[in-house]
Amino acid sequence: MNPKSIHHRVMFSDLTGCVPPQLITIEGPEAQHLAKVKRARVGEMVGVLDGIGSMGIGEIAEISGSKQRPIIAVMLDHIEMIPPVSPRIQICCPAPKGDRLDRMIDQLTQIGIESWGPLISDRSERDPTAIRQDRLTRIIHEACKQCVRTRSLVIHEPMTLAQAIQNNPMRVVVCDGSGNESLASLDVDTRILIGPEGGWSDEERSRFATSKIQIARLGVHVLRLETAAAVAGSLALANSIPPTV
Fold first, then answer.
1. CA dihedral 171, 181, 187, 211 (to 10 degrees)
2. What pLDDT score was predicted for residue 98?
3. What gap in Å lies between CA 133 and CA 209, rounded to an integer?
4. Does 21 sit behind a cis peptide bond, omega within 30 degrees of 0 on the bond before it?
């Protein structure tokens, strides 16, 4: 059965120790969403994602508990480990204001970006330490279920521009209107740096020149921060090897 054809999908803590056929129990918010929102029924098939690469397929064997706290038993038929998207792409940019951060994280998850890190730049406006990790985790999980992504987007600790450039085994590419390189040709693991709404400062541009970092241009117009992140990610993964799901 093609996992993408399964209507119901849930997140489960860890499928690593499961050996089908095996009965697993879904509780909490995932069970509530499956029972109350998706209105799943006994006998229907479910895709089970653990966020670290595994996907299981099973049948709902029992729905117990109460309406407010349902408990769903799923008999796993088989589990498959899905390889990660290649190349690995990390986006580093200041956190957009308000719910624009939510939209950006949702889009980056759907696109297939491996991770996002809040970037502290000269003109950053939002305090990265005030970001609610629990909220972003819920958004990531919902996006994973929607797009059948088996590996959750990783959220890194905030980093300065110097840290983003120096402490990194990946190739580094900076997005800026002055660039003439293309992101569509990326074939190695890459960290993409995107500046704040006000753009990079003169001092930051000097750092890029000194470090001889590749500068890429995203388009003909000035983009919103969250739009630039989604466009950069899409271009970088245009020639990627998709995971077999």
1. -10
2. 87
3. 34
4. yes
Smallest CA-to-CA distance from 59 within 24, 14, 33 is with 24
The stretch 122-151 carries a mean pLDDT of 93
Of the candidates 74, 34, 73, 82, which has an alpha carbon nearest to the alpha carbon of residue 58?
74
> What dihedral do alpha carbons 135, 120, 171, 156 form, nearest 10°?
-30
3-class DSSP string for 27-40 = CHHHHHHHHHHCCC
d(CA 217, CA 202): 18
pTM to 2 decimal places: 0.92
What are the pLDDT digits (tens) for 172-204?
999 998 888 888 778 899 999 999 988 999 999
Q: Say whether 57 sits in a helix, a strand or coil.
A: strand
- Kindly compute the dihedral angle of the four CA atoms of residues 35, 17, 152, 146, in this order, to the nearest 10 degrees: -30
pLDDT digits (tens, 9 = 90+) for 15-69: 988 999 999 999 999 999 999 999 999 999 999 999 999 999 999 999 999 989 9
Tell me how far apart the alpha carbons of residues 135 and 182 are, in angstroms, rounded to a whole number: 33
Q: Which two tokens stand for residue 40?
A: 């799943």
**3 state SS of 204:** helix
Per-residue pLDDT, 129: 82
Query: d(Cα 147, Cα 173) in Å, to the nearest integer?
Result: 27
Q: Which two tokens stand for residue 194?
A: 């995107």
Determine the straight-line distance between the first and last CA of the chain, rounded to whole angstroms.
Answer: 11
Strand ranges across the sheet with 54-65: 8-11, 45-49, 54-65, 70-81, 22-26
